Structure formats: C-alpha cells, structure tokens
Amino acid sequence: MPTARILGVSALLVLSACGSTQNNATGTDGPIAVEAADDACRVARTSANTGNVTFEVTNKGTKVTEFYLYAEGDRILGEVENIGPGLTRRLIVEVSEAGKLQTACKPGMKGNGIRSEFTVSGDGKKSTDTDAKLRDATSSYQHYVNSQADSFLTKTTEFTDAVKAGKIDDAKALFPIARTYWERIEPVAGSFGDLDPKIDGREDVIAEGMEFTGFHRLEKDLWVSGVQADTSSIADRLRADVEEVVKLAKGVELKPLDLANGAKGLLDEVATGKITGEEDRYSHTDLWDFRGNVDGSKAAIASLRPVIQDKDAAMLSTLDDKFAALDKLLESHRKGDGFKLYTELTPDEVKALSDALDALGEPVSKVAEVVTS
User: Fold this and answer.
1) What confidence category does residue 8 fall into, taking pLDDT thresholds of 50, 70 and 90?
2) Domains, the chain, ranges and CATH?
C-alpha cells in the first residue's frame, strides 16, 4: 500500500495551524503554499533552488488528501499523507540535484493525482558531506536495508514456490513472514513508481484502473477465493517484481532526514492500515505487519542514535521509553511463533495498541528537526 516514503530526499511532516506561515508562503525564501482542493492543486511557486525546499499544504477541499514531490519515473522524493479537510501540514524536502520534478495532490488519496511541473536549479550539497556522524548513520541504515532486502527476496521466493506447488498451508504460514521484511523497509522499497501497488496494493487499486496483483491478491486466493487459474502466474509476477524492487532498494543513496522521516512514516503506516485491520483483510495477519513496521522505525532511529544523543539526549531517552512500551504491548499478543489474528483482539486491546503507537509517534515526529538543528 502506498505510504510515506524516504527515498532519495527527506520529508519532514509537521502538523500546524492553518495559515500559520502564509505571510511568507509566496516569497522566494519562505515556504511554498499549496492549496489543495477536491479538484485542484494550486502551488504558489513552481521552482526552487537546491537544498531544503519547504511546502505548506492546506486542504481546502472536503476529502482527505496527500501531497507528493516526484522525480522522473514517478520516484517519490517526498510525501505528506492524511491531510484532512481544513488542516495544514508542512513538507520539507532536501533536494541535492537540479532537475525537472512534479508536484501532485491526491484528493481522496487515490489515483495519479493533480500534477504540475516543478523545477529545481543550482548546485546542491548533501548534508552528509560535512558531518561524519550523519554519514555514518546513513551508511549503517543502508546496511540494514540491504540485509532485509536479501531476506525479503528469500522468503518471498519460498512463499511463491509454495503457492505454485499448491502447498496451501505452507504458503499461508510463509505469507506474513515474507511480508515482515517488506514492512521493515517499505519507505525505501515502496518508492519506485508502480512497483509498490504491484507488490502491496490492496484490492482497492482496481478502482484506480490497476490490476490487482501481488501479496494481497495471493492472500485473497489462499484465504477466500481458492486457487484460481492465474494464481501461479500472479506468484511469478510477484517474485519478479520483488527481485526488481530489491535491486533498486539496494542501490539507493539515502540522506539523514530520510531515516528520520522514514521512521515516522512507518508508524503512520501502522496507524492508517494495520491498527484498523484493513491491510491484511483476508488473512487477518496485521500484527506481523505491525511488528515489521515498528522494527523498521526502530532501526532507522538506532542508526541516528549518536546524532540524537549529541543534540537532544532527553529526546533519546523518551524514544527509548516509548519504543519499549509499544514493544512490550505488541509482544503480549504473541501466539506461538507469530501473533494473534487481528480478529482475536478485543476493542480494548486495539485501543491500547493505538494509544501506545500515538505516544511513540509524537517524539518520533520531532527527530527530523533535531537531526537538522
């Protein structure tokens, strides 16, 4: 499922009061005002210099919307999600190379969005060029992404082989395991054009004119519809798409803010899909995905730990406490080698998980500001 990404640039999302910085929004140095509506996406400026580019997106429509900055090939450079009617959110994107980009608003959070061209010019410098700790952080996280990507391909291959062999019980057991690795690195792996919906798109993608393929199509076949005439070919396509996304993910160049915002994006992914039971709607294995997203968020913060320690030791202590609290609660729902099904959770248990997630999300949302201070 498309979600907050960290590939290639850095995106800092800050919820703010509507119009809080509108006085500077149309100036050459201030935030670029974006007025999103149900049928329009008005961007005050369509060009900027390399470096940090700030967008301030106000939703004046009636539908929840998203705002994206795309590079060539629909590679997501920055994204701010779940902007409700009347809300304003800020997106800060570190762009280190000049080029032609695109902005897009997505009313209803569906489709290709209402797009406009956006030009970045000038000679940019990377934030890691002069800071060894930031450079070490991105290198550490890249090693994590690479190792998880390798495991993702291995487990996906085991899963698709079981599907093709008609070993339904084996395939069902492997489904949430393979997906755990995807969920850990989704901000990176899910940023390459239409590979994300091909691999992780829920059945809703049909309404957007896309074919329903990938993990969730196979999930439906295994748990609901039964094996179909094209199930084997869907499994082959999933494996091929995963091979491609793994190759791309292992070649990406990350920036420090990518880690910080990816950590928050993964928690947002839990809040908008896993905690509601919408993600794995046929198998109800959402807690495996929940665990993967939290693992990935924790890994990103761990890579940034020396930087956070230097700049805000109190925040690091808070992060440790909130991660530990959520971990303890999540692990209390272990069942055998995995987790309870989502349908086995009581409303009170779901609320407790949601509250712990919110408590962690608040300090994680501030990490990007600390990293760039």
Assistant:
1) very low
2) 11-121 (2.60.40.420), 132-371 (1.20.1420.20)
